[in-house]
Amino acid sequence: MKYIENREIIFIMPKIYKRRVQIKRKKPSKPNKTSKTKKTNKTSKTKKTKKTKKTNQKKYYTLADVQKHNTLRDAWTIIHNKVYHIPYQWITVDHPGGRIIEKAIGRDATEMFDAIGHSAIAKKKLATFFIGYLK
Predict the structure, then answer these.
(1) Opening angle at CA 57, ends 55 and 63, nearest 5
(2) What are the residues whose beta carbons fall under 8 Å from the beta carbon of 87, sequence distance 6 or more?
(3) Any domain includes 126
(4) Please, what's the b/e burial string for 47-61 (b: 16 or more CB within 10 A of its CB; e: otherwise)?
(5) Residue 75, SS3?
(6) Tens place of pLDDT per residue across the chain (135 aa)
(7) How many domains does the chain have?
(8) Helix, strand, coil proportions of the chain in percent (round to 5)?
(9) In this structure, what CATH number is given to the domain that contains residue 102?
């Protein structure tokens, strides 16, 4: 049961349970500047990780490359001159349109994609499958 009192929600529980109270977390206390604590000079040894440079090279694929990847487990498709690798899970289970997506595997599916009228959310999801451009 909920009762509203002074714009706060109070939950009434059976007698065997204690009343639920929201506990506010206290802010961590700041160290006192006047305290007389000794500072130890310990040098922390941290590993320096090598930063890997990300290559900004664009990958290009031919239509023949895409046509080789025409199975459910290894599905590539072309939409608007971009190549996408569609995961098996998306094809068989997650795709909202069902298994109609199988018709797009291994070929240019631009017309099919545009004919359906996909939402902005669908286009963002498609962008996660992007692997390169069509030559």
Answers:
(1) 140
(2) 75, 129
(3) yes
(4) eeeeeeeeeeeeeeb
(5) strand
(6) 454 444 544 445 444 444 455 555 566 666 666 555 555 555 555 555 555 555 568 899 999 999 999 999 999 999 999 999 999 999 999 999 888 999 999 999 999 999 998 999 999 999 999 999 999
(7) 1
(8) 25, 20, 55
(9) 3.10.120.10
